[in-house]
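User: ok so my PI wants both of these folded by tonight, can you help

Assistant: No problem, let's get them done. Here's the first:
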Amino acid sequence: MRLSLLALFLCAGTLPAADWKLAPTPLMTKWGKQITPEKTPWAEYPRPQLVRKDWLNLNGLWDYAITKKGEAKPSAWDGKILVPFCIESALSGVGKHPTPAQELWYRRDLDASAWKGQRVLLHFGAVDWETTAYVNGKEVGTHKGGFDPFSFDITDALKDGKGELVLKVWDPTDKGSQPVGKQIENPHGIWYTPVSGIWQTVWMEPVPNPGPGPLYVKRVQFIPDIDKGEVEVLVEINSDALPVTAEVTITGAGTQSVQAGKAARVKVPNAKLWTPDAPHLYPVTISLTREHRAQMMREAGETVSSYFAMRKVSAGPDENGTLRLLLNNKPLFQVGPLDQGWWPDGLLTPPSEEAMRYDLEMLKKMGMNMVRKHIKIEPARYYYDCDRMGFVVWQDMPSAINRTKKHFIPPGAKQDADDQFTDTEKKQFNLELKAMIDHLKFFPCIYCWVPFNEGWGQHDTNAILKWTKEYDPTRLVNGPSGWEDRGYGDMKDAHIYPGPGMFPIMKDRVSVLGEFGGLGLPVKDHLWKDQGNWGYRTYKTEEELRTNYHGLMTRLHPLIGKGLSAAVYTQTTDVEVEVNGFMTYDREVMKFDVADMAKWHKTLFGPAPEVKELVPTSETTGQTWKYRTDAPPEGWAKADFDAATWSEGKGGFGSKGTPGSIIGTEWTGKNIWLRRTFELKDLPAGELMVRFHCDEDGEVYVNGVLAASLPGYTTGYTEVPLSAAAVKALKAGPNTLAVKAKNAGGGQYIDVGLVEQIPAKK
């Protein structure tokens, strides 16, 4: 996106760097270290889906002040803040958090005098949360929403094209009812440092103001139809007072005139389809003309540029009749990370587009084809980069807090009923959900919408999912991602840590694994905090981490053969005290060998191995076990141990409400011991694995020999390899499977079986 000479001239002036210095932070990225107030941050054109020639970037040093809520505009300012970085971030130069009892003010001068005779639009990429804007003391607009872009026409408030811009921002963070994502006043665990105020690019641009009024493009939308070789084009303009024609020129497909404000279908001959391996984009130029029929004349409006892709999102059966995620009518297994987009120096704002793109470049090198953008909306250029680089994006709606209990639902907690939101809270959530879809539905990379995650602020679930599907029928809608499923949605989404695992295949919904893994490795000198770091499993060396990740991929592969259509690993980078990223939080250390990862991921797209059940779990039918909850005598796991006095019950064993559990026998005590016998006609030749769901700290024995240790807890069924000693202990004929598990707090559950993994024939 090239700046015009006018834009370069307008951007040339830089506010003085007095009173600004980097705020304290535990970590910095290499891109953050390059930021200075003398160079405009985020200088790229911020709206790649609708590009105009002339514009003015307003990022840079502004005045700021924090006052009590309700006070008038400050007469003095606290200092300088570097926009577009939020006030809590190191790169803002401030490092303070306004409380819900305070308001954040911004001030800077504007100069649009070079655009005389045109309308001037003021744009904000995102401001968290309630924004009121004043130009020369005149209120020009308000906006509520922390993640979506908004604009004000400020022409009439300017004086000779100039003015003083003042913003007042109020952000209640998690003390309010609005969507906040992972921000919280008291950051800890999986909840992060709050973000207030401006955190995406602020900019101005002129639009034509000819004849009886302004004439410019407000939005463009392209809906491809690869089955008919057409694309539906909609050019929305600012007025429908007179007929307006849009000349749409598609590179490689010619020019066609369409009526602005009305959808029209345009042929795209021999269409090149967009895929992750070949992400072809069609450049587009749009020129407006207005018809003055009474005067028998045509009036030229503006010319803008855009793009689109020919691709189709759907779900349908594969050659075996299994329901799959499809791209361009073909099954596409989707593998990628949970991508939260947090930065140690910029928090929600990446230090630069180069930094933001680096994450995607590394994921591409790892052989991944999708990202789940987790409860955050990125700058528009992120999605443009995904379009260009070939990433499928699952887009989460930023979560609201749980209003009934006044806090977030913690990981692993069960929410049997939807939360109760007030009508006002529902209205705001719906407004921000609609704003997200309106903003992002342009981008071809968006594959599905994810309105809810794990019960966080989950309300009116199926009504909201159905509305989303009807509002954008061109994409899939993920049922709640996690364990709070209500029976609706194109996908049924399991979260299983460390996993992997899946829901059984269904006739009407696609089985996906929306979160798994979370394998942690703290890297000294690259930590947000030296103590209190965590992962779902934490290792001490890179070798341990890589071996266990490879094991996850090995166990994931057969699930694809069973019907699993996508897998989302947690996560791209470490975030604050979470250390389960592919990279450290500062992006300085890659914990894996990228070439090895690419090989492991490539295998997932080949023929899947067969999985043969040797000893069934209780997932579909409750299996009979002998059990006891007081400590048994020594030798309790051996094949010849007499367990005649033990109680008998159906698996699985646990307490109601434990995520992913299928209770056959209630177990609420501290410890449990289990035994059962099974027959093998012949010794298996494939790789043997324990299939289990354990909460928590389990041990599995085969004929008295330790077969697997199951530390920590899982949130669903998964597999681990049998030990070599246990494989040797197996025999044709009767065998004994023995299990011990304990409850250290929270949910509790244990169910175990054995499976054989047989490699696919080449």
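One down. Here's the second:
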Amino acid sequence: MDQAVARARGELASPRRGRASTAGGLALAVLPVGFLTLFFAWPVVAIIRLGFSEGGVDTALFESQTWRLAAFTVAQAAASTAVAVLAGLPVAYLLARVKLRGVGVVRTLVLVPFVLPTVVVGLAFKALWPGGGVFTIVLANAFFNVAVVARTVGGLWAHLDRRAEDAARALGASRGRAFTSVTLPALLPAIASAAAVVFLFCATSFGVVLMLGGSRLRTLETEIYLRTVNLLDLSGAAALSLVQLAAVVAALLVGAGARRRKETAARLRARTETARRPEGGEWWVVAAAAGVLGLLLTPIVALLVRSVSTREGWSLDGYRALAGQGADGTLNVSGWDAAVNSLRTATDATMLALIIGILAAVVLVSLRRSPQRGARVTGEVMDAAMMLPLGVSAVTIGFGYLVTLGQLPGDLRTSPLLVPFAQALVIVPLIIRMVLPVLRSIDERLRQAAATLGASPARVWREVDLPLAARSLAAAAAFGYVVALGEFGATSFLARPDAPTLPVAIGSLVSRPGELNNQMAYAACALLMLVTMLVAAVVDRLRAANAQVGEF
């Protein structure tokens, strides 16, 4: 018996077994790679070809307006990133190092702005500053992304060995000097990774800029939308998409490098330091974090107040009006029908994204553990490729669908599945990022033991991987659901007039005059925000059991 077990273990460790595992991983990769090719690579390549073939790129590159748009896009994204990092660091410290009652609630509250639909964030800030402007856009984008900094940096900060900082203090360094000379260098990889992701989100921000900038302040993202929808300038829009794509790829490369350094820093940690009550000057950091949390809640409260206030006083007319179609029939369906469309579309998108994302995560784990260097390199390339949709403009992708998918049998552009496909493309990278660390952390010996006892690969997954990753999968599904529920960029291109989602309906209501339309928009935002907050609480509770260092 012992000899049989030893022989089975030897077979598991043999190159032949490794090649078989790699081949199985590559076979599973067919569906994720095929999905990425059809619904991402093809539309993006078509946009690039359109820009070159019709001379749009040459024209756009020599237009001063293009570079003004690019400069404003980069400037507002950089300013928003700086504000988000400065605001997120005190919150990261609170989450990582402070032991106080209510920190768990803070962890959930910080997550809420990130999962709020951009159209809701835009309207919330419009309720505070009706005039909009650059300052408001920067604050709104920073508000949207503080959670990225707090959770990413806090995840690594919680695992740094505190003894090095204590040793610096014992040698006479002030608290500030110990932080800048010991702790800050260790946190820089996580800060750089978070900053790259925030910059990416701010550079491709659509709903916030559209709501607060209007026709006065435009980024590449909103200009692509306006040229396509209002001006029908497809070649010009394609050229701008190409300029934006180059900037996005550069940001993704910076973020990937920073993430690798962050993971290295996490592996080099000495031990996990438990949180403790703040001492002395640390209370100032806690106070700063409390101030940031107060600022994060202000737009949310303003939106709720605005949803029940009219010129004549407090009223629930906006909520009652959701049963109708707005003033002068602004919508083709009622507000409640739009909400049902959102729920149905988000469900379809989440189910599809879970299938694609889980398969991709399983493949990436298999390729990373392969003894063959070529397979590991293939895994790294695939990992980077699956992340690309997270950074490429949703408006560009939606525009690409209009250009390409009509060439398929049945013309998918008129299919009700088109919006779920577009939303799934946005969700898949998020699901992979949430599930992949958990699957990588599972001890390979557990899989080998199950295989030694005769379990098939499918049964190993069902009996070993699935129970250990169940909470993470549930959190990923919930997180993906709220992202799909609030997706606005691609959906605004693709949703049919007779089947708008709730964010698209909100955008239509805001763009039309009339107090009733505005009241309906704010009421719909309040309901969408309530659903988002509830799901965010569930996500955070599930994620707490599977917290990974430095993973958002």
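The first strand starts at residue 309 and ends at 310. Confidence is low (pLDDT under 50) at residues 1-14, 265-273, 548-552. Good luck tonight!
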